[in-house]
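Ligand-bound model needed. 1-hydroxynaphthalene-2-carboxylic acid.
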Amino acid sequence: MSQLNALHQAPATSPEREAYYARISSNNLRPLWTNLANLSKPEPVPATKPVVWRYEEARALLMEAVPLISVEEAERRVLNLANPGLLPRPQITNSLMGGLQLVLPGEIAPAHRHTASALRFVIESEGAYTAVNGEKTEMRPGDFVITPCWNWHDHGNETDKPVIWLDVLDVPLVSLLDAAFTESYPEDRQFVQRPSGDSLARYGSGLLPVNYSGSAVTSPIFNYPYARTRDALETMRRVEEWDPSHGLKLQFVNPTNGQFAMATIGTFMQLLPKGFAGERYRSTDATVFSVIEGSGQTVVSGTDGVDVVMTWGPKDIFVVPAWSWHRHEVLGSDDAVLFSASDRPVQQTFGLWREDRANR
Ligand code: 1HN
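Prediction:
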């Protein structure tokens, strides 16, 4: 946190200057110099707060919506995870929208499409489905499911248990660019053209169809099943190569180009072994974490020097703001597995992404 140069200070005001500012404002002009110190900070000062949503509390509140609003009326029965630092915008970070979505047995969240991309990280499900671009997939806890930009999608639950997942969308980014479009499908359910599992078989087995050429912006695999991800972590752990801050951390990739699975949202899965006490780390991408297994705490150092301790257990969701020192610790007798999502691909595309590790 070196401050190499004296930073610009807002110039003092004067009656003449104020009169000038007032005069030019009717010509839709404003002085930059009164605002430059706010616009050019030496480093990010995120408004996003470190917050935990305890699943049991949020779930109970989501269930209270059931008698109040049908899925027909709501279209999507979602409670947004509203970061208190970003209100009144109901966003989880500056660039992402987060939500908990509930589909009850027998319900259908009707087909539509939008230019915002979404991911579903499945928390509770015994096989409810989502259909994306002509293919249905069953959702199981820990599955990472993608709804790419402008793909038809509908969700349904033909099981006898509620399904709940974490939604993460790039809505704030798409809105910033004024590139948001939405369209309804003529029927509740889209036409299913391919058998379930087709995409995973075709693209997710370390193989690609012969003559496949080019690269898809979003991975053609739209369900990365937890069983496979968990197996990969469990096999890799035997080598005992633990990153001091991240444990064993993998990123989900698009097999057609080796990039992140989604163009705007980076997704990760990490195993933190029992007893893990991570070293401090920070990066410029504010990160949403969803706990699959285990319990622990994440300590975020506030800019005011006060630590915020977020304790978490299975199914809880928490956020680490951008450029905030933090460390993960596993508590209790189990390993922990964390899914996470951030805007890292966007930052990396534009050469903005930075990370920093505490000196030992
Ligand atoms: C949306 O279409 C879904 O399709 C979920 O499940 C959350 C948040 C904002 C805008 C559209 C869905 C959404 C959303």
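The chain has a mean pLDDT of 96.
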